[in-house]
Design brief:
Helices cover about 55% and strands about 10% of the residues. The chain is of the alpha/beta class and about 250 residues long. It has a 5-stranded parallel β-sheet with strand order 2-1-5-6-7, sandwiched between helices. A two-stranded antiparallel ribbon has the order 3-4. The structure holds adenosine-5'-triphosphate.
């Protein structure tokens, strides 16, 4: 991998891009994942490649929601595995959540490659390989989940999820947390907690919030979730894109 000097003005963005390229070479990320990365980079550029105050509020609400869950599952696709494998494992540990591999273009090879990659980054148990339950309303391959994973979960974190599946999961009554850089995309619009931020910034911040809230009472966690306004968070991100302001 080419060395990127720290003082390069877009160092973080270029490193992210290289991690996706490596993911494709390792068989973790799909070619469609490269296109998703390009789309994400465009929105991150417009957002100023920073975490907005409204996104940080969403990350705190997401951490509170994960801590309140009876059974939380963090969904990992090819881009997430390439960008934040260790960070997802840390978030799972900080919140007591399971990790499940969940792919748009599912192949056994890529499922195994991602599960191995997550284990290399410290995951004890990786779900998604059993595929013994279905999300209603989706075609066969995209509907597959684990019965004791996403199938059973009350709260799911789905970073960079496709719009149809995000809508179908919400339809199943799951409380959904979506991380996506595009506030106009259907997936964050289907979410109870949309997090408009880059997954490389959002996941470590959620973990920090979860650690910070580890001793909080359920009442306090419920208050943080109730005070979060999804519509306003989406509108704030859109305003930041249009005006360049701090929202
Ligand atoms: P939808 O079906 O929800 O309308 P879409 O067709 O726009 O979504 P895709 O191209 O399937 O979405 O997926 C890419 C999505 O993931 C984009 O919305 C993009 O902004 C987002 N994305 C890409 N990279 C990142 C990242 N690193 N962090 C957060 N979001 C990202």
């Amino acid at each position: 991998m080419t060395e990127i000097p720290d003082d390069h003005p877009r160092a973080a963005s270029l490193r992210t891009r290289h991690r996706i390229e490596d993911g494709v070479e390792k068989g973790i990320t799909s070619k469609q994942g490269l296109i998703a990365e390009g789309r994400g980079e465009a929105f991150d550029y417009l957002l100023g490649e920073r975490t907005l105050p409204s996104a940080d509020d969403a990350e705190r609400a997401a951490a509170a929601q994960l801590l309140l869950a009876d059974h939380a599952v963090l969904s990992v696709n090819g881009n997430v595995a390439a960008l934040v494998p260790g960070e997802m494992v840390e978030l799972a540990e900080a919140t007591g959540a399971d990790v499940e591999v969940n792919l748009f273009n599912r192949t056994d090879e890529r499922m195994d490659a991602i599960a191995d990659h997550l284990r290399d980054h410290g995951a004890d148990e990786v779900k998604g390989l059993a595929a013994d339950a279905r999300i209603p309303g989706l075609d066969h391959e995209r509907a597959k989940v684990d019965a004791d994973g996403i199938g059973d979960a009350d709260v799911v974190l789905v970073p960079l999820e496709d719009g149809d599946r995000a809508a179908a999961l919400a339809e199943m009554g799951k409380t959904e947390i979506v991380v996506d850089l595009n506030p106009m995309s259907r997936s964050p619009r289907a979410a109870a907690i949309p997090v408009i931020d880059n997954v490389v910034r959002a996941i470590p911040r959620m973990t920090e919030h979860a650690r910070d809230l580890a001793g909080a009472s359920d009442d306090e966690l419920e208050r943080i979730v109730a005070e979060f306004d999804a519509e306003e968070a989406l509108a704030a991100a859109e305003r930041a894109i249009r005006t360049g302001g701090d929202e």
